[in-house]
Amino acid sequence: xxxxxxxxxxxVLGVGLVLWLSRAPQWPVATPLPVVTKGFSKQCTVTRDxxxxxxxxxxxxxxxxxxxxxxxxxxxGWQMDFLRRIAYGRASEAYGSSMLRTDFFLRILSFERxxxxxxxxxxxxxxxxxxxxxxxxxxxxxxxxxxxxxxxxYLWKKMGSYQPPPWRxxxxxxxxxxxxxxxxxxxxxxxxxxARLRLHLGEKRYREIYGRDDQLKGYDHLIIxxxxxxxxxxxxxxxxxxxxxxxxxxxxxxxxxxxxxPRRRTMASPASPNTRMAAHSPLLKVxxxxxxxxxxAQLQSMVGEGWDTRGLGSNSWVIAGSRSQSGHALLAxxxxxxxxxxxxxxxxxxxxxxxxxxxxxxxxxxxxxSGNNRYAAWGITNGYSNSxxxxxxxxxxxxxxxxxxxxxxERFRPTVWVRLGFLxxxxxxxxxxxTPRGTILPIKWIQGKKLFLQWSAYHVKESPIVPILDLMKAxxxxxxxxxxxxxxxxxxNMVFADIKGNIGYRQVGLVPRRKSGLFGFIDASxxxxxxxxxxxxxxxxxxxxxxxxxxxxxxxRTFPIxxxxxxxxxxxxxxxxxxxxxxxxxxxxxxxxxxxxxxxDVQVPAAVMLLSLMLNKLKPVHGKLSLQAKxxxxxxxxxxxxxxxxxxxxxxxxxxxxxxxxxxxxKDSASKxxxxxxxxxxxxxxxxxxxxxxxxxxxxxxxxSNAVRVSLEKALQKLQKDKGSDPKxxxxxxxxxxxxxxxxxRHRKERPPSQGVxxxxxxxxLAQSRxxxxxxxxxxxxxxxxxxxxxxxxxxYGVLAGKELDRNPKVLG
Length: 813
Known about the structure:
nine-stranded mixed sheet
């Protein structure tokens, strides 16, 4: 064979390879079209109001679902396609290598295994499956209309000839799985942080700073009060399940006269961060500590931008007719999420036989999760009961050991395609391990141990689509509660009310049933910490028509600390919930206007708790203060503790708070001997208050008064550097601004200009402020809803953050 022949063969092979790599990776076969019955018409009436919200009226449920899918695709086609690509771990195919880490993480989670099970169950319910088929048909018709029409999404235009694959029923379920994971991962993210903190600080100092439940219960505010639930008695009959790593709950005493002798617990392993170090235990080896700290850094990198979950949350509450001026029940809801472009939610009004519902849902799903119909209303917040855990486990003989349980390991090797220009390159050489109950994370850990992530959603047998469709048709509070009771996807707090005056609350989703747990990685050798099924119906959080006449949820603790089961530590301190309840009780009879006023409240809990203490600590060092500091103190003394845009005081306080927290725990944050890793210790309001009250020793070389003084001077220097010496430039709305990040990435150029916003990270009207400023706010109320449920005329007002239609966000209006 001469060189010309060889060259020709190589050329042909090269061209063939390029052609093969240039074709887009194939997607599964589309969902079969529904069998259209005689008389079915795709026609429906769609009108849009001033805010572009579609009002869809159809003669049949099937036509309504078809038109809803069609309209959603027209309004949010790019977003729907993007969300399902994320859920499947296939975003790199369209958006390149920047999405590669996300794709592999989602492939590791393997949502498709659960969705396949859901599909089998859904197909045994022909009516509901048929509705989903019609919705899917409508989505695909909408995609078809977008291909070359004037409404084609601007990002698809920038991607050239890109065409979205056909929509499937499974795609909607995958988006539900994705959103559930995104909203519940706080539980294991907080465990990662606290496992790392315990390793860094040591058990003694960790317990001093972060305390115990009984020490910190004053910072909680409960959703279910003592005596309002069979397992929340008015008097404590047992100690709470431990919230401190290494602790155990005390069981009910058989003989109250005898004082139980506490059992001393030793370490299960000198290298495990989830067990308490006994006094006689040897120090952890530096090499193992370095390896574990490196593992924590890899975990943070794997989770990505979702690592910092501060500012995520929601408010919802219901008020009985006995507390309203009209005598009818009232409901309010404002989910706190990233304010994105396009908007996180899609709003719609749907009218068909059996349906007349208005509210919002996630694009790509035919569901209204916050809204109302003619008989009932409902609202949603994050539940934050622990539904996910990371555990250090042993693997041997192809199984994961969880106490006496053995879980078979399955190896799998996903192929992730990455778009590079017009080519698609496959990455197929990475292999991972999983079990039916969770995934073994590809993180290097100490010898003989693997990190195992389990999530209760892997146990859910039926899609949440069915119960939410039932909720949308509910005609009473009891029917609302019944629908929510069958929803097992974790983990949300749902409040509801009806035109008969009933109000209620239920936490939905599977919650692991166990007697004990840890703030950190649970101990796989302790049977009390291992999941033993899930809470039974009578054990879950639920409340109907409490005597007090209102129910408030704001991601706070669900049950009193004497609740017999461990629910984790992902809940948020009860500052917002407490403030909402104060405002509810302050007004004898409420209206829609008073509900809206509560939603807009901007009293700063940190300032209420800490400012007077901070100012008092300055008195001994008053002579050392600069004139600028004395002027700032005068402003703070007159401050009403509200984060309003035109005020300077909230800016001074927030930046001062940051430097104070940094100074009070400077020694705690420093790297330890032999370890290059520095862990920032930011324990929050309770720890700072205890330092200022003298009940917690600070980690600073300065005296307490000088630490407070130095932090104030640093704050003022920072403000002067950022905004000049004129305090007028320090106004909260100038220093605290909302940025409307794009869903594809926070650094994309396609976004509207920032806006000054009021509120703070724990105000009822939430707008989180991270770091030391200027503050780039990302999270806030993504939707506001208030409803008055009169039998004659329901009054419902909803406001969506952002635009309903997905258009170039640089074009305002």
